Amino acid sequence: MDTHVVDGNVEWMQEEKVVDGKVDWKGRRALKHKHGGMKVSLLILGAFAVENMATLSLAVNFVSYFTGIMHYELADAANIVTDYMGVSYMLSIVVAVVADTWIGRYKSVVISGFIESLGLALLTVQAHMGSLTPPICNVYVKDAHCAKLSGKQEAFFFISLYLLAFGSAGLKASLPSHGADQFDERDPKEAMQMSSFFNGLLLAVCIGGAVSLTFNVYIQDRYGWDWGFGISTFAIVLGTILFAFGLPLYRIHVAHTKNGIIEIIQVYVAAIHNRNLSLPEDPIELYEIEQDKEAAMEIEHQPHRDIFRFLDKAAIQRKSDVQPENQETPNPWKLCRVTQVENAKIILSMLPIFCCSIIMTLCLAQLQTFSVQQGSTMDTRITKHFNIPPASLPIIPVGFLIIIVPFYDRICVPFLRKFTGIPTGITHLQRIGVGLILSCISMAIAAIIEVKRKGVARDNNMLDALPVKQPLPLSIFWLAFQYFIFGIADMFTYVGLLEFFYSEAPKGLKSTSTCFLWCSMALGYFLSSILVKIVNSATKNITSSGGWLAGNNINRNHLNLFYLFLSILSLINFFVYLFVSKRYKYRPQHPAVTGGNSEE
């Protein structure tokens, strides 16, 4: 008996050392003392910081490159940037599915790093070779007829740009989930470390962004875009190599042929297939694997909820669907488990929250494009001999976030927890709401600042002044107000969304839940491009400039009215969010995960 107990203890200790569901680089079961953990995750945080360092300066300074070097009109350049950002974020969903289902997250990171560095290398070549760019011409000179990209030049440009978008999407999709793989959430100590990792992820984004918005932008403006692209290329290559060196130390998630997104699609297909069947009065008659079999197979179980009943038709068993115990399970495209249906209901109930976050990204897109052009017309002097590049202005919210994120996590959350009793201080939905109202305030401030900037230009007879060369007698730091408020909004809404999607997503979608945020941002960027075109078309005949945002002269268009419109749109979106969030029902799970709220 004693020997049995000793053997049992030995066996238990050995099981404790093994991480379930994870393997090492040779396919053997991963060991806790050898693989993963906080130290190894630093390589992943470093890679994420490097990726942001290489790309953030491009997102905020691309408009200057597209107008000044490629000779696109301002509105067209802004749309190219937002389309590029939108495609990049949208592709993250595709890459996440491929990574989780077929190639695995580690390989996805390495392949994406290679593709991103290739896109940046091609952009470097184009910026360096005069034969691949239009002849030098100042597009800001009135009546200047500057040649634009055409034919092979334009094809080369867009192939390079979207290789960059695809590679960036892969890193955004795979790095956070691969980092989370280094921790066992069932181990209390490692669960705390995982929380620290996600906080570190935001900090890594801010630190990488701070370098990008200062050093990279300085290189782009001072030494040229070929040097700027070249440094970004070198950074991605270096980051990918450093990440790859950690292979022997990683816990690697094994790719499964079953994917959570595909299972959600199966529910809708099966519900449509069974649309003519009547729902049983007792939900227990719906198809589900028996509890003892679920425990044996270690699969997820969700209790039935009386919402979105039309999806329950996917779990109605026909006589032809009943299978003997020794045969395979029914066709999942015709019959789904109750748990699978409930997971689809969870995703559907999250959809209104998802949609309300899109408008905020639409506003962010404007700050990343038009605000840089505003800054190029203003006085950029900090000292007598040093000027701040307009594209470096986002360093203000980024620098503030580097300070405020630890402050919020270590001081504000414990303080709020005493009053609310919620582990996170406030719920995820409350955090998102705070960010949404702050984004509304930010756009209102942006409209006021633009009125002041145009007033200075008009009072000094500088409506046709050349950007950069003839700055207005108004400091660029007036734009800091709108950036500052929006930076705080970022911290609340985007981090809140990340936590909300991760905590609410079904087990099979945990790894791709971070991509829900990227997807909402992608739709925001696409909507931004569409909105700019609609606004220009609608105001074409009622403004002397030919549209609120038409032409390259930002002093003569009506950006202030556009910002005011976005502020009103954001306010309406906030009230819609309040209505939706009050009616949202959390999935049945532990209150600590949902921030203290659970379905009653």
Any overview of this molecule?
By secondary structure, the chain is an all-alpha fold. The chain folds into 3 domains: 22-253, Up-down Bundle (Growth Hormone, Chain: A), CATH 1.20.1250; 260-289 and 300-342, no CATH class; 350-583, MFS general substrate transporter like domains (Growth Hormone, Chain: A), CATH 1.20.1250. It has helices at 2-17, 38-68, 74-103, 105-128, 151-180, 188-223, 225-245, 260-273, 291-297, 338-356, 358-376, 395-420, 428-459, 480-504, 514-538, 559-582, 591-594, and strands spanning 18-23, 29-31, 252-253. Strands 2-1-3 form a 3-stranded antiparallel β-sheet. Helix 2 (38-68) runs antiparallel to helix 5 and helix 13 (428-459) packs antiparallel against helix 16. It is a multi-pass membrane protein. This is Protein NRT1/ PTR FAMILY 4.3 isoform A. It is found in: Membrane.
Task: List the topology elements.
Elements: H1 2-17, E1 18-23, E2 29-31, H2 38-68, H3 74-103, H4 105-128, H5 151-180, H6 188-223, H7 225-245, E3 252-253, H8 260-273, H9 291-297, H10 338-356, H11 358-376, H12 395-420, H13 428-459, H14 480-504, H15 514-538, H16 559-582, H17 591-594
Antiparallel strand pairs: 1-2, 1-3
Helix pairs in contact: 2-3, 2-5, 2-6, 2-7, 2-11, 3-4, 3-5, 3-11, 3-15, 4-5, 4-7, 6-7, 6-12, 8-10, 11-13, 11-15, 11-16, 12-14, 13-14, 13-16
Instruction: Report, as a whole number of angstroms, the end-to-end distance.
Output: 47 Å
SSE pattern: HEEHHHHHHEHHHHHHHHHH
Q: Largest beta sheet, briefly?
A: 3 strands, antiparallel
Kindly provide the radius of gyration, computed on alpha-carbon positions and rounded to a whole number of angstroms.
26 Å
Q: CATH top level of the largest domain?
A: Mainly Alpha
| Number of individual domains | 3
Under CATH, the homologous superfamily of the largest domain reads: MFS general substrate transporter like domains
Task: Please list the strands of the largest sheet in the order they lie side by side.
Answer: 2-1-3
CATH 2nd-level architecture of the largest domain? Up-down Bundle
Pfam families: PTR2
Subcellular location: Membrane
Transmembrane segments: 42-66, 86-103, 110-129, 155-175, 196-215, 227-250, 346-368, 388-408, 429-449, 476-502, 514-535, 561-580
Family: Belongs to the major facilitator superfamily. Proton-dependent oligopeptide transporter (POT/PTR) (TC 2.A.17) family.
